[in-house]
Write a structure and sequence with these properties.
CATH superfamily of one domain: ZipA, C-terminal FtsZ-binding domain
Strand order of the largest sheet: 8-9-10-12-6-13
Structural class: alpha+beta
Strand content: 5-15%
Protein name: ZipA-like protein with FtsZ-binding domain
CATH architecture of one domain: 2-Layer Sandwich
Shape: elongated
Keywords: Membrane, Transmembrane, Transmembrane helix
Number of helices: 18
Organism: Hydromonas duriensis
């Protein structure tokens, strides 16, 4: 260590020692300045009950006793020796304020804590003593009785002053807040329900009687019924509007050719004819030799409109336009453009249009089909949710494949009939836009919380009994994965109530579809729902 570092260290030590000595001196100085104040405070508390205060207490009791005693006794009491003050002061107990009394008695009152009734009882006792002393006595006994009476009065004064010292703290007199008599005279604590408790009970009864109050069982029942909301909503619409049955979903224009044309000529006539729409536009042909069946009375001799084939001759053409689906419909402008396309084709083939339908009626009918397809495009959604945590995706995949579901190219599990038709689909939480689909390359690192089972009753034929397969598979998966049954928004439902509602609403819905002319699972139904995004 260098000389400079050593000197610096010595200076630091000296500064710290000086700072410590100065702090110690300040502490000792503060303690010495506080000692007189502490002594004065202790002395003031010890001498609080001085002679004048004791004389005041004894004088108050003497004034209460004087009217009830004889004149001779009162005179003797007035001549009591001053030594009694020394006796009272020497027998005075230390002043102690009980915590329970201090909490009840106000510190702003100087009145005695005992009531007037207690005063009267005490003065009556003293008056009895005075009445006995008023009888004729001798000079010797008179002095003894006076001394005895004085001692009794002094003892009573001491006892009562002790009570006062325990119950009162003499300070500047102010308004009294409460007293022991008020507390003692108050009604006893009752165990019966108070007004606030009764009000709470009445409120609970009102809530129970309120028709808008729902128990957990009621909420579960409503959540279960909401699974069939698309079917119930459609049935309500049918019952209220009574829609007309659907006879077709295509607009038809028939072109009759005077001279049969082959398929190559027809294709050359169509090369630059376009219609700006996503609705299906198709062309069918009537082969030559079948025109005679047009006006035949035999219903089995109906013409056969078939797709065009190379090398065949056709004497008639049918241009069809699907009027509506779930995505769009043919409005008045589109129908007008379709009519123009048919006129240009007829001109090129030297044909004529056999009949022109009413464009306004077609437009209204197209709008009706579009509205119907939108109402039919809502599937039922039932979900299995994990109560806590997440499932590994590979575990879900194992259970799905065990019960016959297949993972398709869209990342969805599908349940198929024996003929390959899809019955229902399983998605990863349809309400979560950030949920990933089930792709094989992500199953090892993926986790799942909700499995959404989607059944579109309108797309599946009745004979497949897709709902029965769905309930069976969901039961098995819920048991294997320890999952809860939920509706489309994640509210808990009852599986038993779900089966009961399904047996009621699904058959009624299927019957209404058949009455409208679009049976469940039919080609017409599938074409109407073709543009559905659900």
């Amino acid at each position: 260590m260098s000389e400079f570092e050593l000197s610096t260290l010595i200076m630091v030590v000296m500064l710290l020692a000086a700072l410590g000595g100065y702090s110690y001196w300040q502490i000792m100085r503060a303690q010495r300045s506080q000692r007189p104040a502490r002594k004065a405070k202790t002395k003031g508390q010890a001498g609080f009950y001085d002679k004048g205060h004791e004389e005041t207490l004894i004088g108050e009791f003497e004034s209460d006793i004087a009217p009830h005693s004889s004149s001779s006794v009162a005179a003797k009491m007035a001549q009591a020796p001053v030594a009694s003050d020394i006796y009272v002061r020497s027998q005075m107990p230390p002043v102690v304020m009980p915590r329970d009394v201090a909490s009840i008695k106000s510190i702003h009152t100087t009145e005695p804590a005992f009531s007037k009734t207690e005063k009267i009882e005490k003065t009556e006792d003293l008056s009895d003593v005075a009445s006995h002393s008023s009888e004729p006595i001798t000079q010797e006994t008179e002095a003894a009785s006076v001394v005895e009476l004085e001692s009794n009065v002094i003892d009573g004064a001491v006892d009562e002053s002790t009570e006062l010292s325990e119950l009162n703290q003499p300070v500047a007199p102010t308004d009294s807040i409460a007293s022991i008599d008020d507390v003692e005279s108050s009604e006893p604590i009752s165990t019966e329900p108070t007004e606030s408790t009764e009000a709470m009970l009445n409120e609970e009864e009102k809530i129970a009687e309120d028709p808008q109050f729902f128990s957990q069982q009621d909420l579960t029942e409503q959540a279960t019924l909401s699974v069939f909301e698309p079917l119930i909503r459609f049935s309500s619409w049918v019952d209220s509007t009574h829609p007309e049955p659907i006879y077709a979903i295509d607009g038809v224009l028939d072109l009759m050719v005077s001279q049969p044309k082959n398929a190559q000529d027809i294709e050359r006539a169509l090369y630059d004819l376009r219609l700006d729409t996503d609705l299906p536009l198709k062309l069918f042909g009537l082969r030559a030799g079948q025109v005679a069946a047009m006006h035949s009375d035999n219903p089995n001799a109906a013409r056969q409109w078939l797709p065009l084939e190379m090398g065949a001759l056709y004497s008639g053409l049918r241009l069809t336009l699907q009027l509506a689906n779930a995505a769009e419909y043919a409005d008045s402008q589109l129908i007008h453009d379709w009519f123009e396309l048919a006129q240009r084709l007829a001109k090129r083939l030297a044909a004529h249009v056999s009949a022109w339908p009413d464009p306004a009626a077609l437009a209204n009918y197209a709008l009706y089909l579009h509205d119907l397809s939108k109402r039919l495009g809502a599937p039922m959604v039932v979900q299995l949710c994990k109560p806590q945590g997440l499932w590994p995706a590979y575990e879900v995949h194992q259970q799905m494949t065990q019960w016959g579901l297949q993972l398709d190219e869209n990342g969805q599990y599908v349940a198929r009939h024996a003929n390959g038709r899809i019955l229902y689909r399983v998605l990863n939480d349809v309400n979560n836009p950030r949920a990933q689909e089930f792709f094989r390359d992500t199953l090892a690192t993926m986790h799942v919380h909700t499995l959404s089972f989607c059944l579109d009753v309108s797309r599946v034929e009745v004979s497949y009994q897709a709902e029965q397969r769905l309930w069976h598979d969901m039961n098995q998966l819920a048991y294997a994965l320890q999952a809860n049954w939920c509706n489309s928004v994640g509210h808990d439902i009852s599986s038993d109530a779900l089966f009961t509602h399904a047996a009621e609403h699904i058959p009624a819905y299927i019957q209404q579809l058949a009455t409208l002319g679009v049976p469940a699972g039919s080609i017409t139904m599938k074409r109407l729902l073709q543009g559905s995004t659900v």
